[in-house]
Design brief:
Radius of gyration: 35 Å
Helix content: 40-55%
Number of domains: 2
Number of strands: 9
CATH architecture of the largest domain: 2-Layer Sandwich
CATH superfamily of the largest domain: Endonuclease Chain A
Structural class: alpha+beta
Number of helices: 8
Amino acid sequence: MQDLKTKLIENLMSEKEAGVYLAMLELGPASVQDIAKKAEVNRATTYVILEALKKRGLVTGIERDKKNLFAAESPERILGMIAEELNRVKNKEGSMQEIIPSLMAIFKAVEDKPRVRYYEGEGGIKSCREAQLELARSCRFCCTYIHYDKNVVAAAKVHEKERLKMSSGRLKVKILYSIEDGVDIPMFCPNVELKQLPKHTPPFHGELNVFDNFVILATAKTKPIGVILESGDFAGLCKSFFELLWNF
């Protein structure tokens, strides 16, 4: 009997429903009180279960000698229920297949839109740089347009070391920079090309990093702000502008 109950629980019913149904099979037409006692379920819960099983076509109500009794339907009804469920699933599949192309069109439209992440504050900039390191693992090149001051140099000494160690020389890096008087730029690995902007370059504070398929902007003139824009199109556009400046 326990094996039968286990199978019912695995495929069709809750534990208490299975207990009530098996009790009814053994008892035949019986009162709620007798069913509850046999199934070891309280009477109020048994009423609820009987109503649920009636809706599923597994129980029928009988009036005998002015008493309301309940009896289990033939177990073959279970196979009928499963067949009905399979049919409903097939109908759902057919209905969904009709709208999948439209849903995919919406999905692709969103998928093709640039993703933007925004970071604020010193902690935010640190998170931005950590995200940059992770994203850069799959990149082939990096172009950086940056103004170096004392604070930027201090941060770059750590950041550039980690980025270049991570790339193992595979990442090709070009850096266009301006620099304040008296400030030394950090040391870089051999795969980094440096070019200083002319002294008459309009002043700016911040940096722009361009990778294969994302762009990172950061500024700290008023408060630290970082933005990661994931878009191959935008990255390609920024790289083109960078190369124009590099070759100017």
